[in-house]
Each structure stands twice: as C-alpha cells, then as structure tokens.
Amino acid sequence: MPKLESFGLKKLDSVHYYVQDLERSRRFYIDKLDFTEVGQSTPELEQKTKQRSVLFQAGEAKVLCSTPLGEGGRAWRWMKKHPAGVGTLNFEVEDISKAFRILEERGATPIQDIQRFEDGHGTLSMFSITTPFGDCTFRFFERKGFKEMFPGFAAYEAPRGGKNALQILHFDHVTSNFQTMKPALLWMEHVLGLEKFWDVEFHTADVNGKVDKGSGLRSIVMVDHDAHVKFANNEPMRPLFKASQINIFNEDLHGDGVQHLAIEVKDVIGAVREMRKRGVEFMPTPGSYYDLMPERMKKVGIEIKEDINVLRELEILVDGEKRGEYMLQIFLKDAAGLYKSSEAGPFFYEVIQRQGGKGFGAGNFRALFESIEREQQQQGRA
User: Do the Cβ atoms of 283 and 160 come closer than 8 Å?
Assistant: First the structure.
C-alpha cells in the first residue's frame, strides 16, 4: 500500500484518565512521580460536565485526571462500564481543518464537528473521533495562542507539587490490548496512515515445552515517523488464549483499551532510584534475567555502558536489536495491584531510556509478559 497523505499529526499531547479517587491520583502523580499539578476545572465547567478534572505535568508528559460529580458526565459513563482507565488520547495537529477532512474521507467517525474557542489570547480548535480502542476516543486539536489546557480549565498562579526530579521528558509510546488486533491495525493504517514498524510473537511453551501451561501474545507496533507517535498493539495467542495476560487485561478492563504508557526519562537509573525511595512498586524481574544478560547482549553485539550489578539491584531491563543501540526500561505494577483494588484498573506505566535503540526489545517483551502473569497469579486474577 502506498504511503498515505499525512493529516498533519504533530505529537501525543496528553492523556485523559478517568478515576474514582482523585486524591489518590494526586498523591500518586505528585508524591510518587514528582509531577507538578498545573491547574483544574472551573466550577462552571464542573457543573456543565458533571466531573472534576486536574492536570498533572512533568516535562512534556501531561495527564488529565477526571472523576465523576454525580450522574451523566463522560467520567460517570466510563465508570459505569469500566474500572479506572485511559478514556481519551489528545493529539496536536498542524491544521485542524485538514486533519478533519482527511480523516473523515478515510472513514474516521467524528463525534462532533470542529469546535472553535477563543480566550482573548488566541484560538483552540478541536474534534474527537471514535476508535477501535474500546471506549477510548481520540481528540485532535490545533492551538493558536489559546492559553489554557481547554475551555473551562484554570491554571494555578503558582503550580503545585513536584519539580520533575525524575527528569521525565515525554511519552514514548502507547500500548494497547485487543481481543483481536487486526481491525485496529487496519484502522491505524488506512485511517490514520500509520506504518508497521516492529513485531514479535512468542509463547511460554517455547521455553517450558508444555502447550498445556502458560500463554503467549502477538505484538505489532504502528508508527507515524514524522510525529514520532508509536502505538504498540497486543493480542492473545493460542494455545490457552484465555490464560493469556492480554486476555485477562481485557476482562479486567471490560473491553479493549490502553494497557500502559511509556514515559521516557533522561536517566533511568537515577529515576528508578528516586522512585524506589518514594515507594513506587515495580514489576519484579528474576535474577536469572541478569545471569543470562551478558550472553544475550553479546549475541546482538551490544556493549552496555551501565553497571550490570546496578541494573540487577534496581531490576531495570536492557534490550537491543542493532549493534550499539539499546534501551533500558522498567514497568510499574498496574493500578489494581498497587492499590489492591480491581476498581483501580489494570493500567500501568513504563519508564524508558533510549540509548540509541528505537525498537521495543523482544527479550524484554517476554520478561514483562511473564512478570505480569506471575503477578496476576499471585493476586488470584489469572
């Protein structure tokens, strides 16, 4: 298929996360991840939308958390169907009219026409579309001098909370789980104009040799190279489809949707040290992973700069696929595991530092997959 005309995607600007407990989210983002609380919805907007929203930011990573205030609002409708989770991805575009025209021509389903707002400083234009990502919608906006995050939002005179001690840079990619991902892949290719970038598939039977135990997944990454926006997409793999942690995620979320967001940091070792001091809980990595690491890195011709003993101590994963290019990453426990509550949802964060590596690391994919399965079994969710 020839490359489609770009609709002018610039970047993933922010995510909209629907939660039951806004104070718990505030403690997590400020106390654990050292995000700054930038502002919140005005009383007028809260009365109109029947939800309260607070924006947290570190570097270019922005997370808008909303909780219901009575019945009828978007957050309330989400919570009727799902536990806490990502309900909207917000993308900046170069030209809102061009984006709307191209996406609609390719079969996108707009939720409304372009909405335009003015605030005395400039304009904000935006529209939203439905997606194959379950009930998660995509919002596209063009900002020309408009000061606030959105109409009815009020930034604080002095931001509150953290100072980005973790040196967070931006979102690296979005990972989503599907019962069957081909429709989503076709939508991303033919509607959004994304290209296939990377793929992997594996089953734990590859290692243990027992087809009656374990599970597997297929994963395909789609990318907009110009905007550096990447979507990693997973589906369960036979045999034992129902036992797959991808399927369990979908059962926990009550549908397809965003599994995790990867946050890129300047120094993952320093960030993880600080996060552990703050009580952040991560997915555990067995010592055998580090025992095998030197040989694994040698096979792909990668020499890592970091001390392997430090990586073992902090349980940071390392992987790469090209000589001289690798990445370091670690995964937080999902919210349901952190708070011992299914209502907190199965969403989690990844922390990543890229040392030239642009891929996703098949070895780390397996390590994460197996770690999540162990956690689900311990919690009685598998």
Answer: no
Mind listing the domains of the chain with CATH numbers?
A: 9-161 (3.10.180.10), 168-378 (3.10.180.10)
Whether the pLDDT of residue 206 is over 80: the answer is no
Interatomic CA distance for residues 136 and 258, integer angstroms: 8
- Whether 147 and 119 have beta carbons less than 8 Å apart is answered as yes
Q: Report the alpha-carbon distance of residue 349 to residue 35 in Å, rounded.
A: 14
Pick the most confident of 94-108, 230-244, 346-360.
Answer: 94-108
The helix (H) or strand (E) run that includes residue 68 is: strand 61-68
Average predicted confidence (pLDDT) for the chain: 90
Torsion of CA 80, 50, 147, 26, to 10 degrees: -60
Give one DSSP letter per residue of 122-171, joined into a string: -EEEEEEE--SSTT-EEEEEEEEB--SSSTTEEEEEEEEE---TT-EEEE
Strand ranges, E, within 225-267: 229-237, 257-265
Q: Which residues contact 210 (CB under 8 A, 6 or more apart)?
A: none
Please tell me the predicted confidence (pLDDT) of residue 205.
57
